[in-house]
């Protein structure tokens, strides 16, 4: 049983702070891997931290579970938290997300879809992301692209 599920037994729907990680996986063509999620929209692979894990370990585990891919050489983009990251999910549970966002370009393996969580995975050019992208994923990608532009300007 996931850590947060055990907590829910004690606190019901009251707000929880839930840490997790997502990864912006970029291929050689500089396209971004997106997940068409069963719970709605297009997002980035990732998920919630388990007890004893680091943000990096969470990122690596979640990408493996959701995509079948092995990633290495994570670069942290940012940690997002605060009032803007409050969610109330359809069952009434409330949470505040603390999300570490990473980028990864060292990717091995073939995509294997966990059909309980995803319809598909597909690489998209950053300038042509699909309709229905989750607001959080769009923000993370925009920040990634902005950071990339800053790095180019400083070279």
UniProtKB/TrEMBL annotation:
CDD domains: NUDIX_Hydrolase
Pfam families according to UniProt: NUDIX
Species: Fictibacillus arsenicus
Domain of life per record: Bacteria
An annotated Gene Ontology molecular function: hydrolase activity
Name this polypeptide is given: DNA mismatch repair protein MutT
Keywords: Hydrolase
UniProt entry tagged with the keyword Hydrolase: yes
Cofactor(s) essential for the protein: Mg(2+)
Coiled coil regions, renumbered to chain: none
Nudix hydrolase domain sequence ranges: 15-147
Family that this chain belongs to: Belongs to the Nudix hydrolase family.
InterPro entries: Nudix_hydrolase, NUDIX_hydrolase-like_dom_sf, NUDIX_hydrolase_CS, NUDIX_hydrolase_dom
């Amino acid at each position: 049983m996931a850590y947060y599920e055990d907590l829910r037994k004690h606190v019901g729907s009251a707000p929880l702070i839930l840490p997790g990680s997502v990864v912006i996986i970029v291929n050689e063509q500089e396209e971004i891997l997106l997940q068409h999620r069963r719970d709605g929209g297009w997002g980035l692979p990732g998920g919630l931290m388990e007890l004893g894990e680091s943000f990096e370990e969470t990122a690596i585990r979640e990408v493996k579970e959701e995509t079948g891919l092995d990633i290495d050489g994570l670069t942290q983009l940012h940690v997002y938290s605060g009032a803007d990251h409050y969610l109330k999910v359809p069952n009434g549970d409330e949470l505040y997300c603390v999300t570490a966002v990473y980028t990864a370009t060292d990717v091995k393996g073939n995509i294997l879809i966990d059909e309980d969580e995803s319809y598909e995975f597909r690489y998209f050019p950053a300038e042509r992301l699909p309709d229905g992208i989750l607001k959080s994923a769009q923000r993370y990608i925009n920040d990634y692209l902005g950071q990339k532009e800053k790095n180019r300007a400083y070279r």
